[in-house]
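quick one before i forget lol
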Amino acid sequence: MIDRAQMIINGELVAAGSGRTFENINPATEEVLGVAADAGPADLDAAVAAARRRFDQGAGSADPALRARCLRQLQTALQARIEQIREVLIAETGCTLSLSRLMQVEPVIADIGYVADLAESYAYEQALPDTTTLMGPASRVVRREPGGVVGAITPWNFPLMLNLVKVTGALAAGNTVVLKPAPDTPWTAALLGRIALEDTNLPPGVINVVTSAEHGIGAQLTAHRDVDLITFTGSTIAVDAGSMARP
């Protein structure tokens, strides 16, 4: 079982810089399950910086075969630990065992194979017909490249599915990721990050997981100057990222 009070930043398991934690509560029983790391603005900055450095260094962004191999490693590792994942998911979402099997666990892990295949087979470069311009004959090529650092924000209701959809799609395209899950379901994301760290060849900084009780951490992520893309599922209530400063 993982140390659920830790996040994943730059390939390391870390607590919040402040040492803060917050309670994770089972919504079905209102039992306190334990705690998760309660990240502040500095922790989010560290995660984004790790993702930025890794992307700018180019590790994996130009190698679809490496990305596909790491995604298949992740799929294999998730399948091997499927009952542990199910236990965490049921505890912090309150979903039923049958729903976990039908929609929340097995199908979404199986879909990683499709994403890995797509990473290898996608037409990243496409030649267009030659043309003639004012300067004379010209050859044309469309080249599709990764966007950069992806901030992924997910809600509580289908956390494993949404975490995986956002993370695996971004990784398949050659991006790096900072995943910020809902405060209601921090452990599912932390476990995903731990498995990626321990059981795949993804370089440090490619996937980072930041858990926090503060919704404003998500606002900070969306406004961060070093984040290139946002994938977001949730409400549109505005939170001032500037109000996140803590004493």
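fyi The CA atoms of residues 16 and 33 lie 19 Å apart.
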